[in-house]
Amino acid sequence: MFTTARSGDILRPMIAIRPMTEADLDAVLTIERDCFPRPWNRDHFLAELASPRAAAVVAVTEAGAIAGYLCLSVLLDEAEILDVAVLPTMQRSGIGALLLSWACREAAVRGAAVLRLEVRATSLPARALYERFGFVGAGLRKGYYEQGIDAVVMEKTLSEEDGAACSSRQ
Asked: What is the pTM assigned to this prediction?
């Protein structure tokens, strides 16, 4: 399934969200290394692919290139976005919003009442995106990331509407 996103007069690339497979991991690991100082390794992703409470997806361009990914974990009525990234050259093109929208829907469909994530306190664009989707600050983990950077814990209370469609507040 390909979707388009339009912002003003800018047509964003056609993107499909589909389940991540082991065959995707080389591309996913490249994005992971490009985006994070302490990237997950192949075993982290393999564990997510094997977990019954996890869901991992990739965002794929019309040309078949993996442009981003998201790993979600749902346990009982709580969900957490464990890892999400977009290819640096494709950031700010709406792919992160598509992945986040998918995560909100999936978490709600699986019965989660709340969706949480952690984000670097210094990552202002990511925090702004999460806030557009209704996430609010719920805590702080001091020195959680490399170089003593704090993690902001953010959460969103999910509703029945989120199961149908979780959209950003633009």
From this structure: 0.86
